[in-house]
Amino acid sequence: MTTPEKPKVSRRLFAASGASAAAWVLTACGPRRLHEVPRDRLRVAIREMERKYSQQAGKEVKVSDAGALPGVEFAYALDISRCIGCRRCVYACVEENNQSRNPQLHWIKVLSMEKEKGVDFSHADPYYHPATVPEEGHFYVPVACQQCKNPPCTKVCPTGATWTEPDGIVVIDYDWCIGCRYCMAACPYGARHFNWAEPVLPADAVNTDTHYLGNRPRPKGVVEKCTFCIQRTRAGKYPACVDVCPAGARKFGNLLDKDSEIRYIIEHKRVLVLKEELNTVPRFFYFYAT
Amino acid sequence: MQTILLFSRFTRGSAKLILRGPRSYWVWLAFLAFLIVSGLFAYTAQVQTGLALSAMRDQVSWGFYIGNFTFLVGVAAAAVILVIPAYVYDWKPIREIVIYGELLAISAIVMCLLFVLVDIGRPDRFWHLIPPFGYLNFPQSILAWDVLVLNLYFVINFVVATHILYRAFHGRKYAKRLVVPLVLLSIPMAVGIHTVTAFLYNGLAARPYWNSSILAPQFLASAFCSGPAILLVVLQLLRRFTRFEIQDQAIWKIAELMAYAMFLNLFLHGAEAFKEFYSDTEHLLYTKYWYTGLGDHRTLVPYAWSAVALNVVAFALFIVPAARRHWLTLNIGCLATYAGVYIEKGMGLIIPGLTPDTLGEIYEYYPTLTELRVAAGIFALGFLIFTLMLKVAVPISLGEFMRRESQQELLDPVTQRG
Fold first, then answer.
1. Where do the structural domains in chain A lie, given as residue ranges?
2. Do the beta carbons of residue B77 and residue A222 sit within 8 Å?
3. B362 min Cα distance to partner chain A (Å)
4. Which of B118, B149, B287, B361 is the best mutation test for A, with the most CBs of A within 10 A?
5. Is B51-416 a CATH 1.20.1630.10 domain?
6. Which candidate, A101, A274, A112, places its Cα nearest to that of A203?
7. What CATH class does A90-235 carry?
8. How much is the pLDDT for B94?
9. Domain boundaries in chain B?
10. Confidence of residue B412 (pLDDT cuts 50, 70, 90)
11. Which of A62, B21, B198, B383 is buried most deeply by CB count within 10 Å?
């Protein structure tokens, strides 16, 4: 005794369960490294991220999946003679990149160095706190990820959770990192930071423009680092630290563009890289413009 | 079917052995259980709050856990020092104790893997290392190599030890075709696990204290001291409390081999110290932090010199024949070796390697109570595994505990004893 309506219901049910099965195959088959995940599955994963982060922050959080542009290799140059050690870059970075406010986590560390000693880490002071900067007889060396061409950190990762993108940015998959911290031991620049406790990011402080390989919120127990503000630079903007620097000490651009400012600096100024002898080949240059 | 029956007899027999014991045995087990539970509570808190409960920070990102891991890889590798003379030169007195070296290696590897597990920030994601679900960055990452060799070494030792015991339980001799190739393979594997673990640190140019090619040989030398040191104490205890017989000669021989290993260890340390202090480059900082401290930062200095003193005492006691043959001095030598190598390879390797950090900052690391409790729990679990395995292995290899039928078949004077 079947009514004619019944098959319609079960067909709908069939379609719904079929769709959810397909969704399960696409998403719930177990997470995979974002490095190798196919484009369509990446989109599903990103929509899931947006849903989760928006719910946590109580406002709409966007997660970009913008890829590297062809013909682009990013590089950075920092004018040591201009830096005044004000640390505005440190805090602009924290706000832009959704770092934990408690415990505080900084991707940029500014070192105060003595002019007498030159660039010498064993006499550097990261905790300088005079009434005003710059201090007499001192200069400042801000250090963040050097985005090495020969990165010691990515090759040691046992799970392949960190890699170099085609535009030269070294990124981390926060959903794949197991938190073994081998990369932190391998990095010669102290650029990698670990979430020793659950990161605290107040909802009103969340920057809602994020990138899946950059400033999306991180969980406890994984490593994070500077990504040249991948969410900004892949959208044609400068990194937050470049924009905020009051001294104009920070320069950023495309290494492959012959007419770029970065190329001009490398070709015409006195340029150095940190720990050159380690052959890490940084894409982060320091120079003296004056 | 027959196999299942035989196996269930073996398991039931083993369970019976484990559940029988004198008062001191139960007190020992209760003590271990207490430490394990305390460690579990500490670890639960660490999982909830995060590794912030440890003293590790971005500056010193590895600490007590990884130090213990490194030390225990050495202990596990040291089974080899007993295996080589036993099987290659067929030197009888040592041959009968090889099985105990293997059981020690099994317990040590379990502890190693646990120390890595408690150190990682996301233990829930450990399966990310295991293909096909996960991804192992092999051969690029030395940690991937370490995961492979440690697990392989564990499997080899586990198979050999259980096979020998299982066969002995049923009154049969072990299958030579299986055991001999595996034992021969375990020799390069033992060297391998320790070399790979040394390379883990050795390959990091960012850390000059580790980036020295002397590291792997020095790891092996110190492992050949610490592993046998534990075993010598265990063998004496067994001799005391069970009918287990072991010739004095075997013990003295092992002590003599330890003296040579300790000499090599001290020599390699000396060579490294000479290079650092005489060339006096900026890389001297790390060695200085260990031996003399940097300014007011002197937390590790007492440990450094205790390790040197303990190692020298152990060497002196083992190199003098009269001293290594006297039970008191022999055991003092064993404890000194164990303590000396534990300090130099735990704290002494990891902490100065990371202090000062890569940007010159000095953060003085000292383990927190959480780390100490978790570590004590892991050691207790390792000792528990070792104790239970010995409880089964000793009677079986003494022929005290076999299936009755097979005992009937083997009525020769050796197994009849007692």
1. 90-235
2. no
3. 9
4. B361
5. yes
6. A101
7. alpha beta
8. 65
9. 51-416
10. very low
11. B198
